[in-house]
Design goal:
Chains A, B: InterPro entries: CinA, FLAD1_M, MoaB/Mog-like_dom_sf, MoaB/Mog_dom. The structure is a homodimer. The two termini of chain A are 30 Å apart. Chain A has two domains: 7-164, Molybdenum Cofactor Biosythetic Enzyme, Chain A (3-Layer(aba) Sandwich), CATH 3.40.980.10; 175-249, 2-Layer Sandwich (Alpha-Beta Plaits). Chain A has helices at 16-19, 27-37, 52-65, 83-91, 99-109, 117-121, 154-164, 189-198, 226-242, and strands spanning 7-14, 40-48, 68-72, 95-97, 124-126, 130-132, 141-144, 147-150, 175-181, 203-211, 214-223, 247-249. Chain A is elongated. The longest helix of chain A is centred in the last third of the chain and has 17 residues, at 226-242. In chain A, 37% of the residues lie in helices and 27% in strands. In chain A, 46% of the residues are buried. Chains A and B meet through helix 1, helix 2, strand 2, helix 6 and helix 8 of A and helix 1, helix 2, strand 2, helix 6 and helix 8 of B. Strand 2 of chain A pairs antiparallel with strand 2 (40-48) of chain B.
């Protein structure tokens, strides 16, 4: 298998509403799936509250550890939106009003009551930052070096990711294929372990479920090398069928 | 307001399936909501993959930083279930088969094909650990000091949390109440900021939405002091109504 550099990213989800249980986060899975397509692996995610110190620590750690660092949340107009200030503090730069962001917001709010101080807050960026266009609701995301500051509302983040598609250097996308089987994973643990060992470079995940009164599991094989994934799945399928199990390609 | 010690917890969600985007995590919100009822605040969550080093680092950091540390995932029977080994390494203790867990699993698998080596893996614990009963599927959770090792499958975790209810020392539960208003949050940002300042000890969150072609927002007031929450909400309501806004108690 051709060796390629593996590109990695970290994600910091910012918001008391996630840590209080009020809001179900959707950005980890959304950004993870998008990164896969860019050939970048989400290596770690952290959820922190609306506190400067917590944001500085988490973003500082993930930005240093991985090729890219994303944040979601805390870039709106209200007092609990402190992501830009925290990241400027981390980077040791002042917060400035970005002129292009001001222009975007002035156009957006022209028919919606006009600009005010709170709305102008959404044009604030760490000095030296570029904007990430927001096709949904005016206020842009922000890019500073390897750091991408995105909205908390998932469909706004989706729009920002869309404008970033194909812009970030990555490696080969990870290919992921599944088979499903009505079997207790504890009955096939040895087979999974030996198969993963035999096909170097694949990772096999085992995800049990209980449905219609029966236990089953999906086995997910992942690698950037699609031919290897297919060979590994074919081996697993053959072994399971030899043991008298029915296998569903694509998973159950 | 009576001063009480604030109890905190960290959570490490373990699993490649979360970081690949394949599986939507439900444990952060589930455990956060449960902790609130125990009077414990979820202060931080991290999501890491099935790698020993990543688990050791995250659990080590959160266990040291907060009163309690929870983990979910990686305690099943297959090769990718390495949480127990990683935590034993972190604690510097050997992994042993817990006799009570062996007994539980033997009973559970008696009518399901009997024990095997993979199933016995689920009885492995860091030496000195206690068990957390699993009412759903046999294999127990594990408690070692301030560390709670739980299942990845949310409804199994729910059963484990249920058996822990009332067992952990906490403070006064945080009371959280909402009002909703068809207003752009950027129009009321000043009011929110001054209200949070006026009612010391409350945190106000502002959560905008876009529905039926109109913008609105829910404002969530949180504090362990219910009387303070009510007073703060009454103030916000009065101010919004004075400005000609209709307010929905409980949120929109």
């Amino acid at each position: 298998m051709e060796q390629t550099r593996i590109w990695t990213a970290g994600l910091v989800v910012i918001g008391d509403e996630i840590l209080s249980g009020r809001t179900q986060d959707k950005n980890v899975s959304q950004i993870a799936a998008w990164l896969n397509v860019q050939g970048i692996q989400l290596a770690e995610a952290r959820v922190v509250g609306d506190r400067t110190e917590a944001i500085v620590e988490a973003v500082g750690a993930l930005r240093a550890a991985y090729d890219y660092c994303f944040t979601t949340g805390g870039i709106g107009p209200t007092h609990d939106d402190i992501t830009v200030d925290a990241i400027a503090e981390l980077l040791g730069v002042p917060v400035v009003h970005h002129p292009d962001a001001m222009a975007v917001l002035e156009r957006y709010y022209a028919g919606r009551g006009g600009m005010n101080e709170a709305r102008a807050r959404m044009a604030r960026v760490p000095e030296g930052a570029e904007l990430i266009p927001n096709r949904v609701s005016g206020a842009p995301g922000i890019r500073v070096g390897n750091l991408f500051i995105m909205a908390g509302v998932p469909h706004i983040t989706a729009g920002m990711l869309d404008t970033l598609t194909g812009q970030l250097e990555g490696g080969r996308p990870v290919v992921s294929k599944s088979i499903g089987c009505w079997v207790a994973e504890s009955e096939v643990a040895d087979l999974l372990r030996s198969t993963e060992k035999a096909f170097e470079g694949v990772a096999i995940g085992s995800y049990p479920f209980f449905r219609e009164g029966r236990v089953g599991a999906n086995f997910v094989v992942r690698s950037p090398d699609e031919a290897l994934v297919d060979a590994c799945l074919a081996h697993l399928t053959r072994e399971l069928e030899t043991a008298g199990r029915e296998v569903a390609q694509g998973g159950i």
